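Is this the right way to post structure tokens for a design question? Let me know if I should format differently. Anyway, here goes:
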């Protein structure tokens, strides 16, 4: 005769056993070796940085990585716009986008900067800077215009200067 309580107890026992087995050390089904899982986030990120977050280039047998932390142009751009709130940063896509910014909270004019990285080299043609100005008469009545070329060129030159200073500082540290 079928006993529903015994059936529920059996399901509970099987479920508990399955949970305990899945929480135990994982073993490779082919080799039977224990699969080690890394709980240190930094170690795990370091393992995958080359393939997911940067470009690997071979340099005399050693791997060197072009990451945001080692890219002077990227760091120079962040240093240049450090006073502005950042809306989007995508190193792998080579993009930094700031949020709308104004020095005065009640100002009716705000600016937004878009920086596109075309290369990691510290050259003026390695980045493209676009800036927009939003002017609001009321909260609903706003116009957005592209900033003039002199403003974007000034931002670009500031980025280049900061990148060069970072590169020089890194060169001095290596010596």
């Amino acid at each position: 005769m079928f006993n529903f309580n015994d059936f529920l107890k059996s399901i509970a026992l099987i479920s508990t056993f399955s949970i305990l087995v899945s929480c135990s050390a994982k073993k490779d089904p082919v080799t039977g070796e224990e699969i080690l899982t890394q709980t240190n986030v930094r170690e795990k990120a370091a393992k995958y940085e080359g393939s997911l977050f940067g470009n690997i280039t071979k340099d005399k047998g050693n791997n060197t990585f072009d990451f945001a932390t080692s890219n002077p142009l990227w760091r120079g751009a962040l240093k240049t716009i450090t006073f502005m709130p950042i809306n989007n940063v995508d190193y792998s896509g080579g993009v930094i986008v700031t949020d709308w910014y104004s020095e005065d909270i009640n100002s009716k004019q705000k600016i937004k900067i878009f920086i596109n990285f075309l290369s990691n080299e510290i050259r003026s043609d390695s980045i493209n800077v676009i800036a927009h100005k939003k002017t609001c008469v009321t909260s609903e009545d706003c116009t957005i215009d592209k900033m003039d070329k002199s403003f974007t060129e000034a931002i670009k030159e500031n980025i280049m200067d900061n990148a060069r200073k970072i590169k020089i500082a890194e060169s001095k540290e290596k010596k």
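Format looks fine. Someone answered above. Worth noting: Residues 68-174 form one domain. The CA atoms of residues 39 and 45 lie 11 Å apart.
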